[in-house]
UniProtKB/TrEMBL annotation, chain A:
Alphabetical list of InterPro entries matching this protein: DH_E1, PDH_E1_Alpha_Subunit, Pyrv_DH_E1_asu_subgrp-y, THDP-binding
Organism: Ambrosia artemisiifolia (Common ragweed)
Top-rank lineage group of the source organism: Eukaryota
Name assigned to this protein: Pyruvate dehydrogenase E1 component subunit alpha
Cofactor(s) it depends on: thiamine diphosphate
Catalytic activity: N(6)-[(R)-lipoyl]-L-lysyl-[protein] + pyruvate + H(+) = N(6)-[(R)-S(8)-acetyldihydrolipoyl]-L-lysyl-[protein] + CO2
Pfam families cross-referenced by the UniProt entry: E1_dh (PF00676)
Enzyme class, UniProt record, top EC level: oxidoreductase
Record-listed E.C. numbers: 1.2.4.1
Functional summary from the UniProt entry: The pyruvate dehydrogenase complex catalyzes the overall conversion of pyruvate to acetyl-CoA and CO(2). It contains multiple copies of three enzymatic components: pyruvate dehydrogenase (E1), dihydrolipoamide acetyltransferase (E2) and lipoamide dehydrogenase (E3).
Keyword Ion transport belongs to the record: no
GO biological process: pyruvate decarboxylation to acetyl-CoA
GO MF annotation terms: pyruvate dehydrogenase (acetyl-transferring) activity
From TrEMBL, chain B:
GO MF: branched-chain 2-oxo acid dehydrogenase activity
Protein species of origin: Ambrosia artemisiifolia (Common ragweed)
Gene Ontology CC entries for this record: mitochondrial matrix
UniProt-listed InterPro entries: THDP-binding, Transketo_C/PFOR_II, Transketolase-like_Pyr-bd, Transketolase_C
Named cofactor requirement(s): thiamine diphosphate
Identification of the protein by name: 3-methyl-2-oxobutanoate dehydrogenase (2-methylpropanoyl-transferring)
Oligomer status and interactors: Heterotetramer of alpha and beta chains.
Keyword Oxidoreductase: yes
Keywords: Mitochondrion, Oxidoreductase, Transit peptide
Amino acid sequence: MALTRRSSDLLKPLTTVSSSVSFLNRRLFSTDDTTTITVETSVPFTGHNCEPPSRSVDTTPKELMNFFTDMALMRRMEIAADSLYKSKLIRGFCHLYDGQEAVSIGMEAAITKQDCIITAYRDHCLFLGRGGTLLESFSELMGRKAGCSNGKGGSMHFYKKDACFFGGHGIVGAQVPLGCGLAFAQKYRKEDHVTFAMYGDGAANQGQLFEALNMAALWDLPAILVCENNHYGMGTAEWRAAKSPAYYKRGDYVPGLKVDGMDAFAVKQACKFAKEHVLKNGPIILEMDTYRYHGHSMSDPGSTYRTRDEISGVRQERDPIERIRKLILAHDLATEKELKDTEKQIRKEVDDAIAQAKESPMPEEAELFTNVYRKGYGVESFGADRKELRATLP
Amino acid sequence: MATRLQKLNRLSSIITNQCNPVRRLSSSSDVLPSVDGQVLKQGKSINLYTAINQALHIALDSDPRSYIFGEDVGFGGVFRCTTGLADQFGKHRVFNTPLCEQGIVGFAIGLAAMGNRAIAEIQFADYIFPAFDQIVNEAAKFRYRSGNEFNCGGLTIRAPYGAVGHGALYHSQSPEAFFCHVPGLKVVIPRSPKEAKGLLLASIRDPNPVVFFEPKGLYRLAVEEVPEGDYTLPLSEAEVIREGTDITLVGWGAQLTTMEQACVDAEKARKSFDIKRQKEGISCELIDLKTLLPWDKETVEASVRKTGRLLISHEAPVTGGFGAEISASIVERCFLRLEAPVSRVCGLDTPFPHVFEPFYMPTKNKILDAIKETVNF
């Protein structure tokens, strides 16, 4: 069937973890950030109207270990969110990021917290990557006061202003033009910062995206449009929805780069390259070839429009965490047992955060009426039934 | 195949509330004539999404120029409304679109302008706003601005609307009032499976563009006997679904279920100021508006002339909601007959909340309080 024929592309073999070892063959402490390890990306980058960067990425033992723990933490958080949703502690709609962790991790490794990130509703792990805490995440998921949006947003609306994370948008594709606005502001202020506007392969077919691209290119904005191509826009495979699923080429006059989004180092290299590129030349599209293990949202089992073999195949061949695990073991930075222990520790951290989040109270009832307008500068409702409106002018 | 269906069923059962089906607010049991004049037999008890599915099936079957498309529609849609249609009628008539609401509606307008019945699905009413421009500026005004040379009358846009208990900001909204401000459109909202089937078929066949909002909370919850054949219910005709003498309640869609419960409770309540009739309770007349634009003012007016009181209830925020329009029109027509101010029990003027949905909603008790307040004014 067509489905299997096409999906076999997803199982590109993970090129053996080949790397040129530039250090002595001995145990290193995981906190070592002076030794340089050079890692080769899984596949070469493919460029559109630009010269792709080198496949060799420099890293340190410390970074490798951090990649592992951070991604394992994200994975664990999403799995815990899954069970919290099923036990009805999380309401609303919930979109999980597991499988795509390398995109967040790799991106964060190449940029600073002054660079902006704006994304759609699959936002939990990006929030974590920006320095958000587990407690804030779980509290927000469960609509508690300690949540990053005071429990008022829920799963789809995570934000973190102090780390320039503009969050969490509910309408497919709507956040990309916003990203151009952010980038314009950065350019106007003559900062050397850039904006990563993230969207999925489904959103890539929205008209707004092309409007945003045109503006970004017209005004040479430092905007990096990151297409997280997980190959399914809700239940529709990319090739059923897009005439050209080569999303990195869809900007036409805007250069693009296709990246293995399951390889944190490829993502890191691409983001570093993109940041330098956009500050000089205006926007670029990064297509991250990635995969979500869960369905589109919690109401989608994720197995009706793709085969189980495909999912388990990607897990076996391309999993971003396994990739790092192999690298760590290959470079003898930790033993298998130590990594397992780390995962156990993470599991405990997550459980503790959940327990703590459950303790957090629901927002005050009055919070229902706050933040509709800025306090004192709009319309406020009064009366027991809140039916009486009064406009307040500054 | 069977397992696939089971999985799909699971998917939609999680989206809608998985509760035991209940019979509420059933349509009147009058025998309906089918479109070819034959008397229809009462069919099986089915839920609302199956009734929609039947209507779509008939629409495709009875008119070879009809097409159904939208996001994930080819697989049955997230709410199972289009299950099996692609298999039976082919992928050239029932198909998935990319995720692009503005494109879907624009495409549908063009398809309809060529004399076809374009039935477009917007996956959630909350996602209809990218298509707002196409609906308001292109679809609604096509006939007028071309001096009747062109039209897109074959266009029907289906979109699930309303609260489901845990939908939060972007899966719960009721945007009907936005569209009721646009001459050239029709806006239809059914309350039950039988109504949904008849009204949807009428909407599809109506020679004007129709926005058809389906109460997604009732997709599985509402179950009633639905005639099996092809029948339509008239648009722009309201229905008195419960007769009464003290107050008129007007609503549409899922909110009628809540209003009906309030009516039942009001009947037990006492009219405190009227000593003679204290034991009788408050007698409420409940009207299902069905079509919001153009709406049936006469039925509402006649009822308010009888009862002298009016209450309107909808899930959308109270300010600028369609209740405001009904209120203004009835005050214009029945000013001297009104014995109390028109009451509106609606959603609050806030975005649709995440955890505070129960506070936001126009619940039974809020309606009951308003009924008492209005009757005892």
